[in-house]
Design goal:
The complex is a heterodimer of chains A (361) and B (338).
Chain A: H1 10-23, E1 28-34, H2 35-43, H3 46-49, E2 54-61, H4 63-66, H5 69-79, E3 84-88, H6 102-107, E4 111-114, H7 118-127, E5 132-137, H8 144-157, E6 162-166, H9 171-181, E7 188-191, H10 193-199, H11 205-211, E8 214-217, H12 222-238, E9 243-245, H13 257-266, E10 267-274, E11 278-287, H14 296-299, H15 315-320, H16 351-357
Parallel strand pairs in A: 1-2, 1-7, 3-4, 3-5, 5-6, 7-8, 8-9
Antiparallel strand pairs in A: 10-11
Helix pairs in contact in A: 1-12, 2-16, 7-8, 8-13
Chain B: H1 18-32, H2 35-38, E1 51-59, E2 65-66, E3 69-70, H3 71-84, E4 89-100, H4 105-122, E5 125-134, E6 142-152, E7 168-171, H5 177-185, H6 203-212, E8 216-220, H7 226-238, E9 241-245, H8 253-262, E10 276-279, H9 284-292, E11 301-307, E12 314-317, E13 323-326
Parallel strand pairs in B: 4-5, 9-12
Antiparallel strand pairs in B: 1-6, 2-3, 4-6, 7-10, 7-11, 8-10, 9-11, 12-13
Chain lengths: 361, 338
Amino acid sequence: MRFIDEYRDAALARTLVKRINRHSTRPVRLMEFCGGHTVTIMKHGIRQLLPETVEMLSGPGCPVCVTANGDLDKAIALAEQPGVIVTSFGDMLRVPGSRSSLQKARAGGADVRVVYSTLDALEIARDNRAKKVVFIGVGFETTAPTIAASVLKADEEGVANYCVLSLHKLCPPVIKALLDSGEVKLNGLVCPGHVSSVIGSRPWEFAAHDYGIACVVAGFEPLDVLQSVDMLVGQLERGEPTVEIAYSRGVSREGNTTAQKMMARVFEPCPASWRGMGSVPGSGLRFREEYGKYDAERVFDIDPGPTLEHKGCICGDVLRGVKTPLDCKLFRVTCTPEHPVGPCMVSSEGSCASYYHYESA
Amino acid sequence: MKVPEDERILLAHGSGGKLSHDLVEKGFLPSFDNPLLSRLDDSAVFDVKGRLAFTTDSYIVTPIFFAGGDIGKLAVCGTVNDLAMSGATPLYLSTSFIIEEGFLLADLARIVTSIKQAVDEAGAKVVTGDTKVVNRGSADGVFINTAGVGVIPEGIDISGSNARAGDAVILSGPIGEHGVAIMSEREGLKFASPVQSDCAPLNRLVSDMLDVSREIHCLRDPTRGGLATTLNEFAAQSGVGVLIREDAIPVSDAVRAACEMLGLDPLYVANEGRLVAVVGPGDVEQLLDRMRANKYGRGAAVIGEVTDDHPGKVVLRTTLGASRIVDMLVGELLPRIC
């Protein structure tokens, strides 16, 4: 298949693996920020191919996983209000909040619908004018512009019964928070490809300049990841951390300025709470004043009740890269994809689900 | 069954009275006509010789009509295939309809026609049936239950617990087509895909295979849960390991593309017209030749082998040369967010 096979070529992969093995002399610790990269690494068994000197850690790059319990509770509370249709991407339904999940709310009679695009949510709003249709806006810079687009479209068409619970997260601020905490000693970062296709590679430059972290923006095929590891090892061996792009077919330094403008028109940065990391300044998106009528937090009086954390769950530590899923006592015992305790076991891009599904043999 | 375009199923169609009789006489009998059915007694009565295989399954699918088939074809093929996977020759089927009030009679007629085509192709007969109508909202259009009986020829012992180290694992064709066809058509998933369901009766393919080999140890159609789940069942039932090679598993470009976009793994996507066979190593070549001569086995390929290593587990050798465990499907397949 074109545009896929050439990035999975086994002979090229072997060449890259040999190069990495030849060049890597000192131990380095690299973090793949994005859950999509974790899936690629686990699914293709890339860890087994890398030399002992290269350690790969999984980062917080799964939007479902980093959504805090308190925010999940808000989404569930909204679904339980009468006259409300909650629309969401599929992954979110099974994530347990403090006491329930959207899936359980649906089983209890709430109208919760899975959509594949925000424009489908808008269509549901058009078809159900007597109800309020709320989209659960979970995602990074990749998803936020599409949600902004749905708000602009609703505004243009006068669809007044549509609103969004904005739980969006921004990636560079959380990386900064991780680096500032000093909890995980990193040498390099495999930067998220899809996020960077929107924001460009420029927002990662602080990591190289201010923190001496090697950065390579990578695509999601096995060769993309191997190439990025090769480039990171090269930077670190030379002692010249900088920002490089190994995904030039999707990413430029400036990114997608149309998407950036659309996002900025509707949203502005705000503090956001991340699972495992607490509140991170400038890492969320809230509605600008002029689009306030589409903000579910303003449209509804939401009372989700007190937030509870899942006992024994170390998703927060896993998301910070401090621990791996294998360090969790619940992993494979009480926490499985069937009966997930924490969100990292639910989302297909969560670290725990990746470790569970793609255990190396 | 010729019906006006807008005529709908009423509760009275399931009441057992005049409308019920009309539906049976005009709707079902002409299509399924055979001496066992047309007696219209309380049960179908027939003689059989030999060991019997008996199976049942209920069919619920949205949408009811999809590229490559519909619920009627699915209800026949599913049950015929379950019989065939025990090595049985399917003989007689029952069909039981639960229909939602308001369902279009014209749609029911289409379903009946496709049931007829599928049983004809399989060489089986519908010999008994039932119809119930439920209030609007109590069912989603139509649900169909089919049960089937077949006879197993002398000397055949096929079971998921018969796999032995050294056996080869054969797959009859590319995987994931049914699941992707269904998901593409589901409401909300606006994905223009040319993928057609592989839904097909496999009993003739199985009898072709039995003609050339008595070394077929396990047979199963990888429906819900996909290839990965079927191989895990073999590994667990037989207490052996299964090793498969990623680059040997046939997947069409269209299915791969759809799965890439949706974040699904073809190994877990449902099939309705494929089988996996675990066979003695000596018979592989003649089996492949014979399978490829059947239109439902054209894409047959050896995808791996049975081993004494890692009993109970399925291991995949990736294209890049690494190995990982392939688990059963857990939870439901959901498209990813980003």
